[in-house]
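Database export, one record per block. Field names are fixed; values are copied verbatim from the stored entry.
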Amino acid sequence: MSRQRTFKVAILWRGDAEARQSATPQNNRFYRIFEELAAIGIDAEPAVYDEAFADEVREQLLSADGVLVWVDPIQRGKTRGELDALLRDVAARGPWVSAHPDVILKMGVKEVLYRTKHLGWGSDTYLYRTIAEFGAAFPVRLQSSGPRVIKQNRGNDGLGVWKVEQIATHTGAADTVRVLHAQRGSIPEDLPLQEFMARCEPYFAWGGCIIDQPFQPRLPDGMIRCYMGADKVVGFGHQLIKALIPPPPEGPDSPAAQPGPRIMHSPDAEPFQALRAKMETEWTPQMMELLGIQGAELPIIWDADFLYGPQTASGEDSYVLCEINVSSCFAMPDQAPAAIARLVLKRSSNARPE
């Protein structure tokens, strides 16, 4: 009788040397994932990362069968540049990496909103590769189509995401805009359009492009986060967000300006079954084909954020994709850790068969 092989997986997140020294499977926010992995016989260990001890982390990852990564694109003033190079090297030497940096660049950046805009989750989306292109096209588009949302290609926590709308001034100037940053605590600001566009110029250096989408009037109805375990829905989260909504007179720090809690739901929750069917049978397969992503390359855990679009003539909701999160998908529904563990076992078995 053959003994079932034990797989070893590293769970990687960013931290300092002290955090790396003290990390255990129980003393971090991923403890439920560690528990589910242990329950099915997978040996999981913390892999706290920082550039200061990257070589040490590299050796640790090379001794594992796979790596699960939770690191934001921008965190503590640092980008993922060095980490992504390390993960590519590790993946080339044998262990699987989820999410692989090359897969992140395909589906975990805002450019995916442009590349997939013809799918059922798309909207009137544009992409600008240079500041000159942005300067030539955006003012005309803003004037003709109403409020727009500008997004830098890579970011998190609302960084580099702006609502932009033209406003009339007492001087009659037509080039004044009201902008609102999606980062928590922001307040509307009126300034010349050219000044705002100059402010966006650094986004081209970091992310390579800027994405331009129409503002969705149903934003106050909340955002639906669809959590995916590879190509299957593992849960939903609904939240009344306040990003890109002007704060009340009491100010951006007042209780009324804070987002509501994200209410988690199982994958079988009735209000979201139409969205689930679209994601599993249409939009995810179409995205994979368009972007050249194989099933074994899909992130083990990722999520797609949707806003409510216009209702159909029969009163049914439509959904507009506003972001895909691949780099650091957390928090998550109660059902997700067990699904992650099953997918880790499947991927490890396929990568290293008997």
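Remark 1: The chain has eleven helices and 17 strands.
Remark 2: The longest strand covers residues 232-239.
End of record.
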